[in-house]
């Protein structure tokens, strides 16, 4: 069974049954297209922290991550110093992994370069939108995630492997990976059809 029937009687993607907090995240965020650069940077950062962990762990710490990383304001994070790294390593509210912390700070600087190159993070990553995806939730990478991962790594980004990037693409709506009979699939499809990428013509 690829669906989860919630207590409200509605059918959602099966992974929603894994934790109560997954349902509001699924219904309000997951799979709906995003053009805001701060949100895109935040999600790439959180997916990096998730590497080797569960999304539930990261989701439950998301507000602490936001507080620790200045709301994922790209310019502010890019200006973090060694003192900030030490501060973050002492923050019990987040995942205290030096490599991941330093990767997010590095990636903020790379994000600034990407914005200068493409006009916005959105304009760049949406070039890799999946137009003919595989069956929903049937894969952990895709040709598009492999290509985007390579493009980001070429520009110096860290912790952006194809699996991490695919999870980012699922969450940010670059692929509609809601199951066929999930209550959110048609909504995500309609939003993607109407979506206009800021700066896409740049």
Automatic annotation (TrEMBL):
It comes from the Bacteria. Pfam families: Adenine_glyco. One of its GO terms (biological process) is base-excision repair. Keywords: Metal-binding, Zinc. The lineage of its organism: Bacteria, Pseudomonadati, Pseudomonadota, Alphaproteobacteria, Hyphomicrobiales. Signal peptide: none annotated. This is DNA-3-methyladenine glycosylase I. GO terms for molecular function: DNA-3-methyladenine glycosylase activity; metal ion binding. Zn(2+) binds at residues 13, 26, 178, 182.
